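Check the record.
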Amino acid sequence: MIAEKGDGGEEATGSGDDALGERQRAVLRRAIRLEWITLGWMAATVALVALVAGQSQAMRAAWAEDMLSLLPPLAFLVATRRIRKSPDRQHPYGFHRSIGVAHLVAALALLTMGGYLSIDSVIGLVKVERPPIGLTVIAGHTVWAGWLMILVMVVTSIGPVILGHKKLTLSEQLHDKVLFADADMNKADWTTAVATIAGVLGVGVGLWWADGVAALIVSVSILRDGLKNLRSSIRGLTDAEARTYDDAEPHPLTLRIEQRAEQTSWVREASARVRDEGHVFHVEVFVVPHGGARPPAEDVVTLRDRIDELDWKVHDIVIAPVDELPPMQTFRSTLQT
């Protein structure tokens, strides 16, 4: 006997938008607005940095990094549009996994940026490249071009600081790993800007290597974030154990589902297999009844409803009564002692 349920009692899986509650839909709308603002800000940043980059290695790296920063918000916007589609016969589980694919795109953007920045910096240092930062004329006044670079870096770093902080908050509320990766990208944006300022100032006082060293230091942090997000996105797409939005630990909801099932009077033992589909989880609960008795259908449905009440992320639920759990248990929560 197997009982299945989608959010709100529907037997169908439903679209990704249907799976969210009113509060989560409002959060998603705010996240979409933030990503459109990000695209506008970063497009303006790319144009400004290109105007003043000159031969500075750090400035060129900052420009490339700003270009790559467009990918995570684009991936997020495409994915949030895809999840609105309802399941069809070719996609019986719906389009929830579009979020996971977008997460992979964002992770690769971070990793590419970190790799490019580190290789470019090392080559510059090995070749002893001395970036020339000359003079420029503004309104009839001759000024050091480095001041113009620093001014652009200061102005363009304001947006990523604010946007990244807001996305970090929303990513936890939505369990959205794309937003989390994009917040990491925004952190990479403003830390690159700070490093670029330090590098340009270093060149200004005669430290030719400051430009490359500053870019190399930042690249290490970006590479680490890229690898962390790449690992997380692959884990999600390959149905590894569901984890928290920041991949810091196994998601506690799996354990709560097992505990909720085992609190049921007719259940002797329970184990949950949970797949992270993006915003929501698909849940299979294997339950062993006391004395091997077959529970009536209404008891199974009641258990299904009680698990559904645990959290909005619990979207599709399958309850499967079995005679015993496999001796080699591979899908119980790793938080289970």
Summary: The beta strands are 3-5, 135-138, 141-144, 267-276, 281-289, 314-321. The radius of gyration is 25 Å. Confidence is low (pLDDT under 50) at residues 1-12. Residues 51 and 299 are 68 Å apart (CA to CA).
